[in-house]
Amino acid sequence: KMSESSASAGSACSSRCRCAWRRSSARQSLREAAAAVALDEGALRRLVSSNLAASEAEMREMLLRGAPQHEAQQRASFGFNQTMQRACMSALEQRDLSLIHYARRGAASLGALQRLGALAPAWLLTRPPGRPVRLQLEELADTLDGSREAREYELRARLVRSVTEGAYNKLRPPPESLADPSVDHVISARDAARLRGGGGIDAVLVLDPEPALLPRHALAEASAELRRLVAQRTQESINPCNRGSWHGFLPLDADKAARQGLGPSTLALLRKLGALPALVSRCGWGRPLVLPPAVQLGFYPGGSGARYSPHLDRNPGEVGLKREITFLLYLNVDWDTDRHGGCLRLHPPDRASGAPVDVAPLGGRIVVFQSGKQLHEVLPCDGADRLPRTR
Question: DSSP assignment of 307-325, as one string?
Answer without folding.
Answer: -EEEE-SS-TT--SS---E
